[in-house]
Amino acid sequence: MEPLDNIYHSTQVEVATAIENDDEVELATAVQRIVAWIINRVIEVVLMIPAFGLIIALVLKSSGGTSDFENMETMFASLLGGLGLVMVLYLIYGGIQLYFMCKYGQSIGKKLMKIRVMRENGDVAGFVHNVLLREIAYGLICSVIMMVLMGIFFAVFGLEANSGVAMAVDVLLQIVSYVPTIVCFIMLFMESRQRQTLQDMLAKTYVVQVWCGVTQLELFLKRPVTIQAAFFKSFYFT
Length: 238
Known about the structure:
Layout: H1 4-21, H2 30-62, H3 68-104, H4 108-112, E1 115-119, H5 127-157, H6 164-177, H7 179-187, H8 198-203, E2 205-209, H9 210-221, H10 224-237
Antiparallel strand pairs: 1-2
Helix pairs in contact: 1-10, 2-3, 3-5, 5-6
């Protein structure tokens, strides 16, 4: 008789194999992932509109002031008010994003596109894999690499801040900073690699259709009746 934990492990292996072979789950399309990313960016831009509106309104109101000092004071207050509004809106937005990403493996954009981030073992990616590894750790790694490259360039060339070579190196570094984004964009279309981007490879995740997590993966990993059935089948037929 095969032990129950071995059966559970084999079930996990079956899910991972299904992901690789694209048999049991359907990966999110490149278009879905790109549109989800655009939705998130659009929301971030839209959240800044009320703040800019507040700043413009207060600045226009301050134009009728009696002195330059009053105008400067009002403009400074409007700037602080606008920045404060942006912070509040972004905190609310960030909290909502964090909740969805931790609980459902989805950002707002992914939720609207009906896709989610899933771990290689079939579980929905939570805080560790979806936020800590896929977002924060990946961003830190890219930042550290850029800082190292910048340090190497300036250490080797000994560049002055206003020199033409320094400006050229700065432009080159700006271009290099987009390389990870370009690489990830290309990887979205690589079906042979299950459309895993650099973030997915780091966090060991996949992005799949929502129905896959609800029907196929939970059927394999979340329902104990499936494991029990496998156990009794192993008991009677081995």
